[in-house]
């Protein structure tokens, strides 16, 4: 059997349950590595408002995590952010697809990138430059066999038809997910929000679709999977070729852990 098509069902139930639970569809004992919010007050007073060259980075000075990106300007403020999240922001990928060197996994940083007016899209390149020039780190994509979640049709086939709309809307409420003119890529992006593993699209559904999923959140993740089955789709664990971003250290840059830097960029 082709190794890229192997399916491991023995641990699929747990993997699916954790994936769905992170959407708030059911309970899970495991929490995502990156918490988007914190109960502690986050201070940004130490971050320069207009850094030279539009970018600045320093080892984190507080045990809190905060990220805010202003879409219109591209300005991105980061407080207490680990390297996986920094790289994910810089390369526009999922944090769990980033592989960080062991010595750098505990490092956290405060940073800001502030593009020139009208150049919001340059924020990603500015953050990559910051990682390369001041941390001595770059990330490169590699495709390898990876434990994934696979979204695919059930044996009897899918039960949704292409929509007349291309609205691209997904409305997730407790126990209900309504799609209007949405693609499978959008559904996967939603499912992947805090999932630890990649989700591979094997639905063969290239169009926009309308559908409604309803389930009882009190019955856990498997109630959501049953609702998914009601439209002819299933989510299971499998081994597929998937892209991971490998972080490597270049010459120069700060030492590992971000604690012995001779000073932040002024």
Topology of this protein?
Elements lengths: L11 H10 L33 E5 L6 E4 L6 E7 H9 L6 E2 L8 E6 L9 H13 L1 E17 L15 E5 L2 E7 L1 H8 L7 E3 L7 E6 L6 H9 L3 E17 L17
Parallel strand pairs: 4-11, 6-9
Antiparallel strand pairs: 1-5, 2-3, 3-5, 6-11, 7-8, 8-10
Helix pairs in contact: 1-5, 2-3
How would you sum up this structure, described in words?
The protein is of the alpha+beta class and 266 residues long. It has a domain at 3-31 and 144-243. Helices cover 18% and strands 30% of the residues. The protein is built from 5 helices and 11 strands; from the N terminus they run αβββαββαβββαββαβ. The chain has helices spanning 12-21, 83-91, 123-135, 184-191, 221-229, and strands at 55-59, 66-69, 76-82, 98-99, 108-113, 137-153, 169-173, 176-182, 199-201, 209-214, 233-249. The protein has a 4-stranded antiparallel β-sheet. A 4-stranded mixed β-sheet has the order 4-11-6-9. Helix 1 (12-21) packs across helix 5 and helix 2 packs across helix 3.
Name its key features.
266 residues, 4-stranded antiparallel beta sheet, 11 strands, disordered N terminus
């Amino acid at each position: 059997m082709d190794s890229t098509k192997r399916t491991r069902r023995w641990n699929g139930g747990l993997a699916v349950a954790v994936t769905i639970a992170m959407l708030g569809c059911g309970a899970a004992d495991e929490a995502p590595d990156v918490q988007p919010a914190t109960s502690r007050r986050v201070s940004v007073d130490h971050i320069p408002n207009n850094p030279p060259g539009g970018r600045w980075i320093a080892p984190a000075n507080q045990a809190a995590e905060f990220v805010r990106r202003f879409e219109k300007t591209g300005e991105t403020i980061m407080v207490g952010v680990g390297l996986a999240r920094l790289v994910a922001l810089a390369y526009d990928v999922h944090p769990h697809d980033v592989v960080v060197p062991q010595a750098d996994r505990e490092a956290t940083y405060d940073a800001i990138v502030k593009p020139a007016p009208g150049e919001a899209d340059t924020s990603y390149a500015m953050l990559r430059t910051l990682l390369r020039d001041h941390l001595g780190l770059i990330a490169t994509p590699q495709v390898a066999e990876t434990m994934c979640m696979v979204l695919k049709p059930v044996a009897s086939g899918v039960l949704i038809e292409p929509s007349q709309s291309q609205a691209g809307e997904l409305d997730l409420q407790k126990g209900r997910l309504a799609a209007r003119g949405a693609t499978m890529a959008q559904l996967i992006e939603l499912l992947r929000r805090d999932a630890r593993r990649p989700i591979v699209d094997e639905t063969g559904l290239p169009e926009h679709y309308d559908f409604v999923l309803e389930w009882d959140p009190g019955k856990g993740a498997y109630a959501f999977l049953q609702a998914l089955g009601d439209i002819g789709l299933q989510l299971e664990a499998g081994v597929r070729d998937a892209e991971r971003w490998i972080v490597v250290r270049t010459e120069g840059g700060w030492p590992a852990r971000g604690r012995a830097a001779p000073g932040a960029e002024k």
